[in-house]
Amino acid sequence: MPPKRKKFDTLMAIATASASFALLAACSAPLPAEQSATEETHTVHLLRQEPHRAATCIARNTDKNRGRVIAKISEGVPPALVNVAVSEKQPVALVRLFAEDKGSRAEVAMAPLTPERQNAWIAAMLEGC
Questions:
Q1: Which of the residues 41, 60, 61, 105 has an alpha carbon 20 to 30 A from that of 128?
Q2: Quick one: 47 and 68 in the same domain?
Q3: SS3 category, 24
Q4: How far apart are CA 57 and CA 125, in angstroms?
Q5: Cis preceding-peptide flag for 79 (omega within 30 of 0)
Q6: How far is CA 22 from each of CA 8, 11, 13, 29, 97, rounded to the nearest angstrom?
Q7: DSSP letter at 114?
Q8: What is the domain range of residue 8?
Q9: Distance (Å, whole) CA 93 – CA 98
Q10: Same domain, yes or no, for 98 and 69?
Q11: What pLDDT tens digit does each residue of the chain (129 aa) get?
Q12: What predicted TM-score, i.e. pTM, was given to this entire model?
């Protein structure tokens, strides 16, 4: 093979490999290790207590389990009967409570936290309510 042809073939192989790699990298998304902490999440939970008692229970749990955290109970915007706003230095969660047959439904909007921290917060707030 002439030297120019060999050099051309080598350059073409490098260019083809580079283009293939770039195309593959552009088309593939990285596998998520875990949900990022940049998204607000919304979950729904059924509680045993009626909305006003559940709000008191959530506030009590928050005060008991989370130290410098503040839970403020306020009148809900219909159809929600009661809201509980939970904050540290910044808002952490808003729990909207609705009447259900034999208790209440809690719609929890959590600030951006890792899934593990969000689950821990929700479990601590709603425990026994």
A1: 41
A2: yes
A3: helix
A4: 8
A5: yes
A6: 21, 16, 14, 13, 51
A7: -
A8: 1-31
A9: 16
A10: yes
A11: 555 555 545 434 443 433 333 333 333 344 344 445 557 889 999 999 999 999 999 999 998 876 788 999 999 999 999 999 999 888 999 999 999 989 999 999 999 888 888 888 899 999 999
A12: 0.69
